[in-house]
Amino acid sequence: MSVTTDETVIRSEAAGPVPAGKPQRRGFFAAGLHIPYAMILPAVIAMVGMLAYPLYRLFDLSFQNVNRYAYLVNPALAKYIGFDGYTKVLGDSEFWDVVLRSICFTVELVAASMVLGMLFALLLNRVSPWVRVVCITVMMFVWAIPALVTGTVFRWLFASNGGVVDYLWFLVTGDESVKHYDWFADPTVGLYAVGAAVIVWGALPFLVIGLYAALTQVPKELMEAAKLDGANAFQAFRHVTVPVIKPFLMISTALSFIWDFQVFAQIFSLRNTSPEPGYWTIGTFLYEKGIVASKYSDSSVISIAMILLMLAVLVFYIRQMLKIGAQDR
Amino acid sequence: MTVVDHKPAPAVAAAPKVKAKARATGRSSAATWIWNLLGLGFALVMAFPIYWMIITTFKTNKDLIAQDPTFWPSSFSFESYKTVLNDTEFWPSLQNTLIITLGAVAMGLIVGFLAAIGVARFNFRGRSFFIVTMLVVQMVPLLALIVPLYVVMNNAGMTGTLVGVMLAYLVFTVPYVVWTLRSFIVNIPAELDEAAMVDGCTQWGAFFRIILPLTLPGLITTGVYSWIQAWNEFIVANTLLATGGQKTAMAWLTFYATTPTRGADYGAQMAGALLVSLPVIVLFVFFQKKVSAGLTAGAVKG
After folding, report:
1. Across the strands, what pairs with A64?
2. Domain extent listing, chain B
3. Which residues of chain B from 223 to 242 reach within 8 Å of chain A, CB to CB?
4. What is the distance between the alpha carbons of residues B121 and A62, in angstroms, rounded to a whole number?
5. 3.30.450.70, 1.10.3720.10, 3.40.50.720, 3.40.50.2300: which CATH number matches B80-297?
């Protein structure tokens, strides 16, 4: 391996000598130090321009008073108000209501979709191949429907006039009074029952198919050994299946958290583009404040709170991903 | 990454054979039938909203406004589709979506592929930092960036333009493409492109004959995924295009559903929703296995 003078300098600065026996550049374009930098440059520019700079502007805005569109058009009006924006938003009980609602809703969604996903994956593991093909085909279609559309479909399914769910409920109970039940009148029912149904329905295909694929990797011998040792079905699941599928279980839980915490389109379309305050989770709240009400600075504070809440939970996940990623090389 | 990304797809494909054997030795057929019925029940519940969506588009007005829902239309009508197709904003918004999606996928793939080769084939200072950043970046909620993105685009004079939206989509396409393609390229032995060059290929020759063909499945996976993301994205497109009079199909759909004349026309709303989702459904059905494997690899969704 030929080491250029340039590289020697860079190396000694970084982490001492070049690791022996691990060639630096091999195969494609095995020459030129600047090449890798040139290759990642477009990506770096894109990330700085579309992410880092907006993030900087996010912090910048959160310390300003830009709460009307006029301020945005005429920057001279904007001024720095320090932490006033933070005290205003964080001192607002509505903000905390929304945060609490988001957390409860996310916990409900993640728990429901993981438990249901696991149960249906186990079910797929038991059924005949043709039933499995039917289930997977159906789930592929569900997976492909845009989130915005699923909200619209469920709004119609749960409509108080001509809605199917009411009607089915009436067919089962025979009670005329439930026929025109308004699911959306009480946001608690509307969000935690109907909203959750939309989101879990949309999330199940990924979880069921992923978990099922993970389950097929559980060695049959291990299961049989557990049965021989007198383990019941639950014990075998707990001590044999779970440890084997743990990596996917963790990744899918983290992903569910990421998607469910920032959920927006489903609620937005479920409530016909104008969700009532009782339906505001952090995503919809951000949209109502930031875009609809033009409160750019207030919503920046909310955005920062959202990012921090999310990252706090995800530190665990990131560490896990890095461990898995480290196995590549 | 290798642990997670490539295995799910083959497992789905290989499973039936394995299962058939296991069933023959183990479970009774009566029990299997109970499980089958449960499985079909599950499929029925999952499929029902889609069935309802499709059946609604063919219903006549009489069925649509009925107090009790009709599970099968009394007669089929194409009125809903006529209404949608005659909407003057339908085709332009669909065209905008197509342009944005194609642009976002092309830009994301080119930028991401280059960077993926960079991190997979070279060891350079800042490499791990770059990879870790790409991973963390995927967790920043797009929704949290919407206001500053609007401000930045507004300052650059790009609100109301399709290019602005394409660029904004790089936030989610590039990290995903880099992260996923990286694991594909890492798995191509460097000896292969060395051998090609020993055999007289130029560096570009080695790229086009070795790296590009072997990464093609990865490019398709990430391309399809980026396509779905960009096509279905609503909030960024809606916000950035709010001032320019342009709309994407998703934005058209929500406006369509809320206009006073269309608000109650569920048949037309469903027809519109179905037509707008169709390009994604078709793509998904074609590339189903690749997409499910790619999603677990890249660790993001909208």
Report:
1. A80
2. 10-56, 80-297
3. 228, 231-232, 234-235, 239
4. 41
5. 1.10.3720.10
Dump pLDDT digits (tens) for A183-218.
Answer: 888 888 889 999 999 999 999 998 998 898 888 888
Count other C-beta atoms under 10 Å from residue A72's C-beta: 19
Q: Do B147 and A290 touch (CB under 8 A)?
A: yes
To test the contact with chain B by mutation, choose from A134, A149, A281 the residue with the greatest count of B C-beta atoms within 10 A, namely A149
- HSE of A196, CA atoms in CB hemisphere, 13 A: 21
Cβ pair A314, A254 in contact under 8 A: yes
Conformation bin of residue A162: beta by default, left when phi > 0, alpha when psi is -120 to 50: left
Extract long-range pairs of B242-248: CB within 8 Å, 24+ residues apart. B242/B159, B242/B160, B243/B159, B243/B160, B244/B159, B244/B160, B244/B161, B245/B160, B246/B92, B246/B96, B246/B160, B246/B161, B246/B162, B247/B89, B247/B92, B247/B93, B247/B96, B248/B93, B248/B96, B248/B97, B248/B100, B248/B165
Closest by CA to A23, choosing from A12, A31, A15, A34, is A31
Q: Is the ipTM value over 0.85, yes or no?
A: no
pTM for the full model? Answer: 0.82
Q: Does B60 touch chain A (CB under 8 A)?
A: no
CB pair distance less than 8 Å for A261 and B273: no
How far from the centroid of its chain's Cα atoms is residue A136's Cα? 22
Cα Rg, chain B, nearest whole Å: 24
The domains of chain A are located at: 91-327
Angle at which helices B90-121 and B162-186 pack, to 10 degrees?
A: 40
In three-state secondary structure terms, B67 is coil
- In this predicted structure, the answer to whether residue B19 has a pLDDT above a threshold of 60 is no
User: How far apart (Å, rounded) are the C-alpha atoms in residues B182 and A31?
Assistant: 20
Compare CB distances from B121 to A29, A72, A201 and report the shortest one's residue: A29
Min Cα distance A192 → chain B (Å) is: 19
Strand partners, A80: A64
Cβ(B268)–Cβ(B262) below 8 Å? yes
Radius of gyration of chain A (CA): 26
Looking at residue B179, its pLDDT comes to 86
CB-based contact (8 Å) between B263 and chain A?
Answer: yes
pLDDT digits (tens, 9 = 90+) for A22-41: 445 555 555 567 788 888 99
Distance from CA of B69 to the nearest CA of A (A): 5
- Per-residue pLDDT of A207-248, as tens digits, reads 998 898 888 888 888 888 888 888 888 888 888 888 888 888
CB interface of B with A, residues 134-153, below 8 Å: 135-137, 139-152
Where is average pLDDT lowest: A168-177, B119-128, B137-146, B291-300? B291-300
How far away is chain A from the Cα of B137, in angstroms, using its nearest Cα?
Answer: 8
B154–A contact, CB cutoff 8 A: yes
Asked if A287 is an interface residue toward chain B (Cβ–Cβ < 8 A), one would say yes
- From A15's Cα to the closest Cα of chain B, the distance in A is 10
Q: Are B126 and B177 in contact (CB under 8 A)?
A: no
Class of domain A91-327: mainly alpha
B226 vs B222: CA distance, rounded Å: 6
Altogether, the residues listed in chain B come to a count of: 302
